[in-house]
Design goal:
The chain is an all-alpha fold and 316 residues long. It is 74% helix and 0% strand.
């Protein structure tokens, strides 16, 4: 499936090409304009639109927040917009990209389609903005948020090799739980802590987190481990091109197969790439289980405390 958006302007390709050549990211020039566009949209949303709209729709809350909380509020607004947009885009590509649906093991690691590259680009644009925002507001976001943003940007950028684009879009769906997490934060700032609305949102958060991160995410992680192991076991896969994994006669490749693998001829699987990708994925998987346990623990304490306070008031 081709990228449905207009192609990258010549001037942007010319600027980005030397960087792409140096970093071995051949598909980056094709999508650099989308990375830049996403970065600019999120910057404008954070700097101008969120303060204006939040003051208008939350006049009794936002204008009275401390500066530190306002910064956090704006970052959460950007996160909310991004999570809804990128998940909608990813689901659309999952349903409509026929080439992705028919990828085999090798293509799931080295394959590329324009639609997958587009989704990767918008995700990279957000993480580039998130890295900048976390660095500028380090005293607010903390070093953990900056480290997460940098790691996510690096992993996302590896997709422009191209590498594991098939799974990149699958892991994007982790963000399905983010809107509920942001709503939970907004409820606290709107003096709705412990309300029935926060309770229902908390239940939806746990269900979404469990489904998209612990179930879907774990299944996808196991599959990517298997595919990378297959590539590493193939003769010459860590020291030569991929010809050993493709038919000896390139004319036997179907047209869509040739298009999907057009950036794969000289691809190799350096051990550092496997370790970085799988190591990061494994760490995030363990963190997802840890965060899920912490969310259950925090929710139980919060709402049990609210129930006790309500009981005391009723008895007075």
């Amino acid at each position: 499936m081709i990228d449905p958006l207009p192609s990258s302007p010549t001037i942007i390709r010319a600027i980005v090409q030397p960087i792409a050549d140096t970093l071995c990211l051949p598909t980056l020039p094709l999508h650099a304009h989308e990375v830049l566009f996403a970065f600019c949209v999120y910057h404008i949303l954070n700097t101008y639109l969120s303060p204006a709209l939040s003051s208008r729709f939350f006049p009794t809350v936002y204008p009275h927040l401390p500066l530190r909380t306002k910064i956090n509020w704006n970052i959460h607004v950007v996160s909310q917009f991004q999570s809804v947009f990128i998940c909608s885009l990813a689901l659309w590509v999952l349903w409509t990209d026929e080439e992705r649906k028919h990828m085999d093991t090798t293509e799931r690691i080295w394959g590329y389609t324009g639609a997958l590259g587009m989704t990767q680009a918008f995700a990279a644009g957000y993480f580039a903005w998130d890295t900048m925002a976390s660095a500028v507001h380090l005293n607010v976001s903390g070093p953990g948020a900056l480290a997460h943003a940098i790691s996510a940007l690096i992993i996302t950028s590896l997709g422009f090799r191209p590498f594991a684009n098939y799974y990149g879009i699958a892991f994007v769906l982790y963000e399905l739980s983010t809107p509920f997490l942001n709503f939970h934060w907004f409820f606290d700032k709107c003096n709705m802590t412990g309300s029935v609305y926060q309770l229902y949102n908390g239940i939806a958060l746990l269900l979404a987190f469990f489904g998209c991160r612990l179930v879907w995410g774990t299944v996808q992680s196991v599959r990517v481990y298997q595919d990378i192991w297959y590539i590493l076991q193939a003769p010459g896969s860590t020291g030569s091109d991929l010809k050993s994994l493709l038919p000896s006669d390139s004319t036997t490749l179907a047209p869509h197969k040739s298009e999907v693998m057009r950036f794969s001829e000289k691809q190799v699987m350096p051990l550092w790439l496997a370790f970085v990708y799988l190591g990061s994925n494994t760490l995030l998987t363990f963190l997802n289980f840890y965060w899920f346990w912490k969310m259950i623990e925090a929710g139980r304490k919060r709402f049990s405390s609210s129930a006790k306070r309500a009981g005391k008031v009723a008895n007075q």
